[in-house]
Amino acid sequence: MNETWNPESPGVLRLPSGRLVRGRALRRPLPEGLQPTFAIYLLGRQPAPVPWESRWIPWPDFWLPKDKVAAADALREAWTRAEVERVEIACGGGIGRTGTALACLAVIDGLPNHEAVDYIRQQYNPRAVETPWQRRFVSRFQ
What we know:
Radius of gyration: 13 Å
Distance between the termini: 29 Å
Shape: globular
Structural class: alpha/beta
Pfam families: PTP-SAK (PF22784)
GO molecular function: phosphatase activity
Organism: Paenibacillus lautus (Bacillus lautus)
CATH superfamily: Protein tyrosine phosphatase superfamily
CATH topology: Protein-Tyrosine Phosphatase, Chain A
Order of helices and strands: EEEEHEHHH
Protein name: Protein phosphatase
Helix content: 25-40%
Keywords: Hydrolase
């Protein structure tokens, strides 16, 4: 079993089940300390290579993933791996796409869809899930 995230570290979100996931902005420097063991990058273009395992989900800024099924599969994988690994979810600014993905993880974790956005805004970032279509995506996420 890997060492998990420090729950007090910036960007670390505790899901209702207790799993820890780090959200972050790729435009900012990599935080000091532990690195992820698995990451999902939500970007309009392929990210630079990283030394840990990662998946790229094509997802333009302020919009939705280009392939919703692939995004859901990746988020389910991230949720499963977060039980024993350091999982990171990140986009350019770390708010809209990252917040949307974190809200979907909360739904996978058992939180009702209609509570997920508020939970992420309270626990991660008050501006998370930036657009009406991102909120709708979370409300319909399965």
